[in-house]
Each structure stands twice: as C-alpha cells, then as structure tokens.
C-alpha cells in the first residue's frame, strides 16, 4: 500500500490464545499463540501477530477475520475487539492497529487447520510466556492481551473458550493455573467457582484412576464476551 | 484534510457522561452528555460527539484529550478507550473512529468549564435518554457507551466517577437508578453493595431531616477502569 497523504494507515491484528500440554513429564498446560514470520521490511524476519491492512471496503471485524484466515488458516466463530494501538512511534510509518482476540480450544484449532485449503506458511505457535523480540509493539500487545485474560476473563468464559463442553473443577482449575502462572488452592477454588454461579454442575461424572469427579458445564446465562455494539446493544432506528 | 489515497482516515471522539438533577419537582437524576453542533458537511447542523482527526504526530489518547478540550473546554484527568468503530458506511467517506469515554462528576464539569479560556461554542448538554438524530453513527456509539455503563461498570466505579468522595448508600442507589432507568430495592441494593466490598463504610454520617445515614467511600483497591496497556500492563523492555 502506498503511503497516504495523511500518513496514517489502519491495520488489524489478532491474538489467538489456546492451551497446549507441554511435552514434558509433568505435562503442564501452557498458553500458546500463533505468530507469523515477516517476509519484508520493516522488521523483516521478526515474528509478528497475524494481521494486515484494513481494506477500503471492509469493516474492522471482517478485516480481522480475513487477515487471520489468510495468514494462519484459522477462522474462529467470534473475534472480540481488544484495543486500538496508535502510539506515534510504534512503527517506522504511522499505523493505527485495531487488535482483536479470541480464545480457542486446541481441538478447534486442530480441526480448523486440518480443514484449511492452503497450509499456512511462516506460522509458528509460541509459548506466550517465552516470546522472542517481536515486530513493532507486538510484545506489548500480547502482554496486554494476557493481562486482560488474567484480570477480566472469569472462570466461566475460560471454561467456554478453552475447555470442552463438560469438564471437572480440576480441569477448570488447571486451565486457570496455566493462565495465572501459579497454583490455586483446590478447596478455595471450588468455593469461589460454586459461589459465582458461572458454571453449572451436571449429573455426569468422570471415572478413572481417581474417585469419580463431577462434570460441570458453563452457564450460558453469564455474559462471556463483550459482544460489541452491533451485536448486543439495542438497535437504533435508521436515521 | 484532503481525502487520502487509501481512502481511510482516523478520527477520535469522546463520550463524556455526567449526572444532572432534572429541573422538575421530582428532581430526578439524569445521565447527560455534551454534543457539538456540526458547522460543515457532512451532516451540517446535526449534533455530534466532540472529536476530530487524529494528528500525524499524536497518539490516540492525546488526540482524544486535545479534541475534547478544543471543542468543549473539558479536560478529564483520565479518558478510557471505549471501542473502535469502523463500519464501511458509517460516514460518506471512510472513517475509523477511536472512541474514548469518561465519567465526570457535575461539579468537576462546572469547575472545568469555569476555568476554560474560551467558552465553547456550539456545545449543548443532552439527556442521554432523549437524543435527537445525531451525525454519523453517533446515536449508536452513545447507545453502546450507555450499555457498557449499565453492564460493565460496577457500583464502585460509578461511585468514584459520578459521586463525591463521601456518599451515602442512598446517594449511590439513586445514581445507579438513574443509569439503569429503574428503581432498585433499597434493602437488596444495600446487601449487594456491602457484599461486593467495592465501597467502604467510614465513621462519618450525614445528618439532616432523616435519621443519620452512614457515609461511604469507594474502595481504591478495586480496579475501576480499564487502564490500557501503557498504564497497567507490565512494562516490556525496549527492543
């Protein structure tokens, strides 16, 4: 794209967060995300968030979905707007980036990648807690996304975004421990989750080597994501 | 500003919400906000949110503060990013608007307007629940801001943003009733607020024609606003 007269261009980028089990004996869960290796200046060869320029004839949400699919082969059912980054010095040229994010279960990721027509090139999944120096301010953007995940995303939403339909409280605790990067006391965790009403016990149990553990599902009545003005706010009559 | 080659321009707008007492016998509190009458096309003569173009050499936060001060004389200590609006047809030309918002106490508004060098022109304060047809998608933006205020802003933040330092639970309830547009049961409200830990009782009481009412203050330990990546997220070492 040619540098425009006003000198300000609009891009979109997307942070896709999922969990993978570490291939180590302890097999702990780790937050991972896909990054794309840059093939041109600025920051050629550095890793960056999937994204691209906003098209003249597409909305922000559509641009985020399109650029994510083009670069990674992923097509989440819902992308949420995270934040607009517009510092003057965040790029050698002036770029305002509207950043989206989504939480995806690893089985969703696997299914979408298996179904992608062209296998994505130059894409690798990184441990979010051990990133290299990325292009632009993308380290900072990911730090912000992880901070939001830790601070603003409740147990129910994590359950919905990162766990299968039915899960035990131990599953839910393990996911939250991976996100928070610290152990949670099982008894306290159970009390907090049960008091919150954000997950609902089912009649099912998981059996195995331990005593049977009750299966839960997330409470669909609890608002999980910021649905954005065009999805949830009352409709304004056309002017 | 000349239409750029890419055809996409970036603007900032700000939603300033405060409460005023209706000049009617019941004197109920009403959410009000300042709007600016447009003096040129498109939408000449219609009312619009205060705002303007993003400068090539200023960040998003700075542009929001500058355009708000220039158009309304207001300078809140903190503006929070609300959402980026970028639908293709939201303006006759292609404009992405980064929208900020703030809750201001009416006495803060009065003090800032009294201190403003130039009294703002073409500015009026409107009842948020009875707006005319505004320019662009600004009705929709305000509907979204009010939806966020109702759904995402807890009692503590409302107390901090819209009430003086010390307030009674009746004050806090009245403010929340104004925002929600419905009555709240006093006993239930008291229980919920006290259980939330978001406001803290003081030793003070307000005396008057009724029995003394305890004064509360907001709990500064509770996160009030989304502080944005540059304010709260852990600092990333410079690359």
Automatic annotation (TrEMBL), chains A, B:
Residues 7-150 form the Nudix hydrolase domain. It holds the Pfam family WHD_NrtR. This is ADP-ribose pyrophosphatase. InterPro entries: NUDIX_hydrolase-like_dom_sf, NUDIX_hydrolase_dom, WH-like_DNA-bd_sf, WH_DNA-bd_sf, WHD_NrtR. It comes from the Bacteria. SUPFAM superfamilies: Nudix, Winged helix' DNA-binding domain.
